[in-house]
Amino acid sequence: FLHRPELLLKSPPEEAIADPKNPVLCPLHLHAAAYEMPLRREEVLCQEALRELKEKEGRLYTQKRRPHREITLRGLGTTFTLRGPEGEVLGYLDERQAYWEAHPGAIYLHQGESYLVRNVDLKRREVWLLPALEDYYTEPRAESDLEVLSGEPVGHGVYVGRVVLRERVVGYVKKRFFTGSVLEEVPLLMPEIAFPTEALWFHPPEVVPPHQIPGGIHALEHAMIGLLPLFVLAERQDIGGLSYPFYPRPLPSGGGPTVFIYDGYPGGVGYARAAARRFPEWLRATLELLKACPCEEGCPRCILSPKCGNGNQYLDKKAALLLCANLVLSLPPRVVH
Length: 337
Known about the structure:
Layout: H1 5-10, H2 25-36, H3 47-52, E1 54-56, E2 59-61, E3 80-83, E4 89-93, H4 95-101, E5 107-110, E6 113-121, E7 126-131, E8 136-148, E9 152-155, E10 158-176, E11 182-187, E12 193-202, H5 213-227, E13 239-244, E14 258-263, H6 271-277, H7 279-292, H8 317-329
Parallel strand pairs: 3-7
Antiparallel strand pairs: 1-2, 3-4, 5-6, 6-7, 8-10, 9-10, 10-11, 10-12, 12-14, 13-14
Helix pairs in contact: 5-7, 5-8, 7-8
């Protein structure tokens, strides 16, 4: 926006996305609705809830006593309670945030104050904090895997389908304030999180040497995720990505280098499917960004990501530019009205 203010002032609004048939959220909300007032069959949008609700005299009822308590408003999974040095409640985190941001040994920032995570009680779902006097911050390291369950082509070499995401925090890095120099890498093993969602994927052409492909597709993935909020009404943390030099399982789209971009919420919200519809303009914007950014090796404006599980290692901006340029060449000509 700094260099292209017309994008902010003249572009159409981003596409707002909601999926009323989300297979994770829909049953939870319908049970809560049926608890307030029995539902008509035509009001039930997803089959998962229809199988669970009980029908009586043409109306659908829930047998759950407090269905609203199963709905987590703060994100994914069970809520963790943040407790301060005296045991006082400071706030709440969802399960994924707790593992990524408040794991044992993490420096956690809360309302402008730094805390050291003393302990994470997985049974009681509590995170215990101490005042932090350290002169460093922490970054998690994570391993992720994505299993494709189904997929369909949507044009321009892009596929969309149901997937299962699995991720686990496997360590963290201590970094010095201001300089970012690494002080220590600490191994850690947090519980795995797995959930179904929706993803788009595509296969960049192999137009760079094999040793440049991993860094190139990783950098391309980051750049595209960073620009997606221009086209879909989402925040960067709502979207995730994974890139494989060679995907290890059969795909309906074939094999080779693969870039996945997925909805970061269980069941999917519709971001990936909406993004696939805007793929040509999204890809052209990514190419323009990679060309115009004045940095040599990559920076936060183009390929660095604040939420990369690998700490922005193994990125190759030049390879990403070549891959993106060749993908754009395969698109149909831009229509000018």
